[in-house]
Design a protein that fits this description.
The structure is a single chain. This protein has 9 helices and 16 strands. With about 280 residues, the protein is of the alpha/beta class. The protein has 2 domains: about 90 residues, Elongation Factor Tu (Ef-tu), domain 3 (Beta Barrel); about 110 residues, Rossmann fold. A 7-stranded antiparallel sheet has the order 6-1-2-5-4-3-7, sandwiched between helices. Helix 5 runs parallel beside helix 6. The longest helix has 14 residues.
Length: about 280
């Protein structure tokens, strides 16, 4: 059982839960995730560890409420308990030890960028983060990232930072030279756009494929991805891969696999027919 210590709304549909998990707080590394089991009969959800406080024994989970299971999770309040949190899982991020890194985060992906930027900063790497959202209220982890290096904020409507997409700001920074590696985390179309930008420049780019994970153990096969013409599982072989080798077309198709089931579950709940364990 893991007690929820604090709860914070980060954007209109993104919530941060700080949860008691002393062992995980001590040993987690950037890029790793956990499987969260809210209660008996509930779906098991893979979530990246966005932050950790070893002294307090807590980890931060950032959840985007888009379906029944994630809505149930963010409805919980401090003082309540999550039945199980398993991890850390996944391979740690490949962190360079010197030089200059560009971290690009879109939407809730910015929460995944945060521990990567933390790890780079601890090793003395110069970090520049470019983060974006639809408008000001959708931008998350800005202040946390500013403590780790320079930050450029982009919003679709120009309500905060510069108007435009993160890829536009990234293109300008990359064109100036001096970037040794790029870490991109966000919606798959955004990561694909970043990869298309860096490939002709020859800048090594790492992307996080956590959006396709389901059970997080490799048993369901739902997170199969093709990388360098080979089949991998994002949860056990990743979740991070060389973006220049990822088959993004196949990845986009796989993202829609469970959409119908999630829509049916959400509709059932909204119709008052919701049952525990309905996925």
């Amino acid at each position: 059982m893991h007690e929820i210590i604090a709860k914070q709304g980060l954007s209109p549909n993104v919530t941060r839960l700080d949860v008691k998990a002393p062992r995980l707080a001590k040993i987690r590394q950037a890029g790793q995730f956990v499987i969260v089991h809210r209660a008996e009969g509930a779906e098991r959800i893979p979530l990246t560890i966005a932050d950790a406080d070893p002294e307090k024994g807590t980890i931060a989970l950032v959840i985007q409420a888009v379906g029944k299971s994630t809505r149930d999770l963010v409805a919980m309040e401090p003082g309540e308990f999550i039945t199980g949190i398993a991890g850390p899982l996944g391979k740690p991020t490949e962190l360079i030890e010197k030089g200059r890194a560009l971290c690009v985060g879109g939407g809730v992906g910015t929460a995944v960028v945060h521990p990567i930027a933390q790890g780079l900063h601890r090793q003395g790497v110069s970090v520049h983060s470019i983060i974006g959202g639809r408008s000001k209220e959708w931008v998350i982890f800005e202040q946390e990232l500013r403590q780790l290096g320079e930050v450029t904020v982009c919003t679709d409507d120009g309500s905060h930072g510069r108007k435009g997409f993160v890829t536009e700001a990234a293109k300008e920074l990359l064109s100036a030279g001096g970037i040794d590696i790029v870490y991109a985390v966000g919606p798959v179309p955004m990561m694909r756009a970043v990869v298309n930008l860096t490939r002709p420049m020859g800048v090594h780019t790492i992307v996080s494929l956590n959006p396709v994970m389901v059970d997080g153990t490799g048993m369901c096969g739902g997170c199969r991805v093709t990388v360098d013409n080979q089949t991998f599982f994002a949860c056990v072989d990743g979740p991070e891969f060389d973006g220049h080798l990822v088959d993004f077309e196949g990845l986009m198709d796989r993202l829609g696999t469970y959409r119908e089931f999630e829509q049916r579950a959400t509709h059932a709940c909204e119709s008052g027919q919701c049952k525990v364990g309905l996925h």
